[in-house]
Design a protein that fits this description.
This protein is α/β, with parallel strands linked by helices and 275 residues long. The protein has a single domain, classed as Rossmann fold, CATH 3.40.50.720. Helix content is 42%, strand content 15%. Helix 1 (17-28) packs across helix 8 (219-230). The chain starts with 7 loop residues before the first strand and ends in a 9-residue tail after the last strand. It binds nicotinamide-adenine-dinucleotide. Nicotinamide-adenine-dinucleotide binds next to helix 1 and helix 6.
């Protein structure tokens, strides 16, 4: 028996990357999944592979009516909603602080924060009526540590983590668990752009070297975390921001400190006199 047997999930941004991998894993564990994305071609392609266990709906997460429609589609087709995975995202506004326009600010916050809020808002009433449910949102290690990503991406991902905790406190007594996942560098189009296989390999080699675990993340790494948080394996876990980053957020490994250069050359390790 699958770990999500009989459960119904909505995944946003499921046409690519982590969302697509999660849709496939959830269905392999017995769930029915409403694949949603603003990219119809990619979303349809993922849903088609899921057969009778998948369905596709065009959803732009920055539009509340789209999210509301997704929840009613899942419940009208399949009668319930057990997992809401607020995962859609993009890089958002880039550049120095003085260069970011109000429009760029708005679209970044609309997708990365408001989209997550709408998912929580519209999943909650259905889950309350069922007295069960798991809401999962994709934040980022950028929400824990500044300097990883552009300003607004960093700020909205931090907000997603805090919103997760706040809503978890409200919904816990009603059987609804609310958690976030904080991925590190994961090989998806968001991180490496539309690359061919050769350039994807170069991306993996280059960034993999900087991860304590020696490789970049793959979409399946995040799908496995989402499965854990969606399933009954995590019934005592709510309000968390689960870091899935190959150890990068733990800090800089001490044995690589000497790679830091100073004016006098590499930093020397301190040794007591005579040793
Ligand atoms: N890849 C990484 O290194 C990384 C690291 C940390 C966090 N994340 C987060 O992971 C999540 C998934 O990203 P991914 O890496 O799988 O990227 P991806 O580009 O492979 O997939 C993102 C999907 O979201 C969709 N999308 C974008 N804006 C949307 C909108 N307004 N409405 C609906 N769908 C929309 C895109 O069409 C795409 O299919 C994002 O929230 C991202 O911020 C990614």
């Amino acid at each position: 028996m699958g770990r999500l047997e009989g459960k119904v999930a909505i995944i946003t941004g499921a046409g690519s990357g982590m969302g697509a991998a999660t849709a496939q894993l959830f269905v392999s564990e017995g769930a029915r999944v409403l694949v949603t994305d603003m990219n119809d071609e990619k979303g349809h392609a993922v849903a088609d592979e899921l057969g009778d266990f998948g369905d596709f709906l065009h959803v732009d997460v920055s539009r509340e009516t789209d999210i509301a429609e997704a929840v009613s589609r899942a419940t009208s087709h399949w009668g319930r909603l057990d997992v809401m995975f607020n995962n859609a995202g993009f890089g958002g506004a880039r550049g120095p602080v003085e260069s970011i326009s109000e429009d760029d600010f708005d679209i970044t916050v609309d997708v990365l924060l408001k989209g997550v809020f709408f998912g929580m808002k519209h999943a909650a009433p259905v889950m309350k009526a069922q007295e069960s449910g798991a809401i999962i949102s994709t934040a980022s290690v950028a929400g824990l540590q500044a300097g990883e990503s552009p300003h607004l991406y960093t700020a909205t991902k931090a907000a997603v983590i805090h919103l997760t905790k706040s809503v978890a406190l409200e919904l816990g007594q009603q059987g609804i668990r609310v958690n976030a996942i904080c991925p590190g560098v994961v090989a998806t189009p968001l991180a490496h752009g539309p690359l061919n296989e050769d350039r994807r390999k170069k991306f993996r080699d280059r960034f993999g070297r900087y991860q304590p675990i020696g490789r970049v993340g793959e979409p399946d790494d995040i799908a496995n975390a989402a499965l854990f948080l969606a399933s009954d394996d995590s019934t005592f876990i709510t309000g968390t921001a689960m870091v899935v980053d190959g150890g990068a957020n733990a800090g800089r490994p001490w044995h690589r400190q000497s790679e830091l250069m100073t004016d006098q050359g590499p930093i020397k390790l301190y040794r007591p006199e005579g040793r």
